[in-house]
Amino acid sequence: MRVAIFGDMEGVGGIVHWDQVAAGHQLYQEGRRLYTEEINAAVRGAFAAGATRAVAADSHGAGSTGTMAGPAFNSLVPELLDERCEYVTHHGWGNYTELLEEGCDAAFFVGIHARAGTQDGVLSHTISPRHFSAVHINGTLVGEIGIMAAICGHYGVPMALVTGDEAACREARELLGPHVRTVAVKKGLSRFAARHLAPARARRLIEEGARDALANLAEVPPWTVPSPVTVTFDIARPDQMRKYRQMDRIEIEEPLRVHSRGRDFGEAWFRVAPFPR
Ligand SMILES: [Zn+2]
């Protein structure tokens, strides 16, 4: 059994502030350790349930300013990683599809946050708060959970486990159905405050959630977006529109909206991804 683990930092227990997730800040190093240990918990659960391969793809931009240089998508602490886990760095948001294409039984999304605009979502945003104020798939408002579930679904892979704050878990269940396993490691008291589980307990629950998700995989079908597909981006700032005006087969709705249409989700999505670009 093969498992793709997508990891993000803002939904990790103990994290509430951009300084904990943006490279260059002192608190970032603590954030990286907390993040890596939650990935390890998911890896332990996966192997306990019979996984033979796990690949963790870092999906956290770390405050990158629009280039792929530096620490973007490179926040895991390699020395701390469970040796059974392979890991992918520096590959752009939503761009790691290798394992999904090769054939993969399940995907996990560990440490994810709620979509942009969620009041009780700790550090809520969608891909980048500087770039997007909202994303829709066929008119449904989605965040990173929905987009990643759609990418996985495009390759026939179910999003079987989602971990993060309570708002992210709620968002996952509302979108993917009640059978998706969710593990809430904190409750947002505002966008920048939370009540957390202690790391040891959070990790134990993630491990159990991962094991449980794989043991009951038949309950969670891949999230397949009905064709044809329109992905709509509400752009946060006018200066960001320039690059979309230069893209082929993109429909601009002035002043700040971009539509990408395709026969299926992959065609619509990969015309504009990965991010940043
Ligand atoms: Zn992130």
Q: What structural class is derived from the secondary structure elements?
A: alpha/beta
Order of helices and strands: EHEEHEEEHEHEEHEHEEH
Measured distance between first and last alpha carbons? 33 Å
Total E-strand runs: 12
Which strand order does the major sheet show?
3-2-1-4-7-8-9
Rg value: 17 Å
Q: Please tell me the CATH architecture of the domain at 2-115 and 143-219 by its name.
A: 3-Layer(aba) Sandwich
What's the total helix number? 7
Strand content: 15-25%
Give the fraction of residues assigned to helices.
Answer: 25-40%
CATH superfamily of the domain at 2-115 and 143-219: Dipeptide transport protein
Name the overall outline: globular
List the ions, cofactors and other small molecules found in this model: zinc ion
* Model regions low in confidence, pLDDT < 50 over at least 5 residues: none
**Under the CATH scheme, which class of the domain at 2-115 and 143-219?**
Alpha Beta
Output the CATH topology of the domain at 2-115 and 143-219: Rossmann fold
